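Form 7-S
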Amino acid sequence: FPASVNPLVFWPDAERASRVNVATLRAPSGFRATPQETSADNHKRVATVRVHSEHRTNTQHNGKVWLVGAGPGPPDLLTLRAARLIEKAEVVVYDDLVAEVAAELAPEAEHIYVGKRGGKKSTPQADIDRLLVELCSQGKQVVRLKGGCCSVFSRVHSELQALCDAGCEVQMVPGISSSLAGPLFAGISLTDKELSRHFMVTSAHDPDILDWTAFAKIDTLVFLMAGRQLAVIVQRLRLESQRSADTPVLIIKSAGTAEERVWEGTLASIVELTQDEALSPCIFVVGNVVKVRHRG
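Output:
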């Protein structure tokens, strides 16, 4: 592929993929995907895929699904490519925290909410998978809008696999993960040449599946979905990860939005500091890098 053309177009299996012809042609009929500029002629083009007729499945319908990362929430933190795709979508299937994006950029599109939030009724993942396949099979141009980056704890594999198995054309568009943006909004750089030479990001949704002893030598820990399990996380960090009681910690709720709140403390104090608070959605940062937080 030319360097300016994104070849990230998925097909159901490796055998079929090996038989795909790819050309830099016009966007599919009825829809303009985000243009890619070539250095030679500066024309706007996208990669389209044509499959040998003997290997065609139901991809003949011209539908396509973009799995798009919406960033931390506010529309001005979208990538330009994501914004352009949302504006042109016929259907936007969206999660929690990105309703504002869908409403502002795609007012004429059909909006379908499929959000998940701990402790609340959620749309089963299998239903979301089937919905995306159905919409694509109807020839729709669909944006599946996910908070943060679609590659980070977003169940993207399930949706991608379902679409590929059904022969649907699908493309992923990265976004800014809240695991990176949240600490930055709160004045923390996750790396520091003295205090944080490495960091780890994990989901705290199910603490029992984590190897807590493996966290002992990692300078900075970032836990997503930590609100409901905060007391358990603190306890296991103390007992199994050998973190001292005075280890600096920070909680960022609703990072990057008007509702953002921050609590700073230690492993010994943070549970008490937040005991009467509804923390979801939040990010929990653990490590000495919190000491050099910029509060300007």
